[in-house]
Task: structure prediction
Amino acid sequence: MKFNLKKYRIGYSLLILTILISSCKKDLIEQNKSGFVKSNYFTTASQAQTFVTGIYQKLYMFQNGDAYGESPFITMELFAGHATSLGQSVNNNNVINNRTDAVNPGFEDVWQNSYNAISNANIALASIPGITPFADADKKKLLGEVYFLRAFFYYHLVRLYGDVPLITTPVTINSADLYPSRTATSAVYDQIISDLKAAEVSGLASSDQTGRVSLGAVRTLLASVYLTTAGFPLKKTENYALAAAEILPVINGTDYTLFAKYDYLHDNAHKNQGELIFQSNYLVGVATNSIPQLILPFNLLVGAYGDHLGAMIPTNEFFNSYEAGDLRTQERQFYFSSYPSFKDGTTITFGEHALYKYFHVESALGNGISDENWTLLRLPEAMLIYAEASNEAEGAPNAVAVAQLNKIRARALLAPVGALSQADFRAAVWKERYHELAYENKAYFDVQRTHMMYDVINNVFGDATSTKNEQNVTMKAQYYLWPIPQREISTNGKLTQNIGW
Result:
């Protein structure tokens, strides 16, 4: 009989398959030409590689945008409180003012895409081991990629929604997990750590310039997991030491180096190299993204784009929180406030500071079709993970921790920090996370794990639920988590809603 997946919403989220059969120079961004039957698909190594490539494509969910400038990566930044939206999105403005609800489409996008990816990962992990012929070393590496990807998606789910269904085997129409219950956060993290440890010993290359998972990406993500679990809600403070130990090979190795220019963070020539540890990959003619349109000022013709949405504009107060002389605040470094009109070349003055760190010169001066990569993990984050984790584990900053912070400051043309107490060094590292990793979907997760908000006007950290941000909004406690999407609640009676939603 035919099974109507649309009728069973959670089944749709868990069973839908993104299978990519075509070949392409950039294999991570192949076009979808599906012709999949599970019973006869996993018979060759090539089929397995193609199937796993399909899982990578779910990383695109962060940049899924629409004509109103709504996108999951925008939503996460607006939750952090240091950006405004000049576009037409009611949902974005509701997030800014803490009045959104469980039907916000961004909440559903992340949930569905994550579980789609996890479903495919579960199928891959169950099916790939039985493929012959398939060289054992190559098979193990491919499984390592899958373990990483499953961990990556669960890591986002558990941080955004809290207790979430934990499903690690393929689901069929007769499975109990077709309508799953929520699993305790601690158990989800246990699975994430287990998956990343499996990926760590799978024989992956230490780095990779094609966009696939590398050992460096595994170690960086695992260190991030340890750092997060040392904070709220689990408070496993012993994991600070684990985070520091895990990330040390990444910052001490030679696979990753800081770029000499900030321009290299968002151009085509430097994708998947230098300080870029893990990115989602795009290619004109195959897969494109909407990042430039989302971050450009509203309705100002900067570049050849069809839309200029103004969906995420940094607040002036956040821009002004950088130290005097910081290179990142100089024009066309991290931010810009004017640019020649694409129409006639006259200078357009924005009236605010837009994000130059996501401006894509190639598409702006070309045909307006962007294939800028989206960075998920990069070296400065790894350096700051070590600095923070070792400071917490040892009770004071060690020389290596201070050196990591100062390397980032030196590139920004800032003076090095000297001898600091544990508390002062902690604050310095937190500020550097905000300033260096600005608008990279790190700030909201920092608020979750520390329960502290960066008060940029007073340049201090305060309790997240009692400190007003620069838009005069105090975060509600319910905003430590996203709501379970209302459509999922309505379909699956076993799911409960997060407090306050």
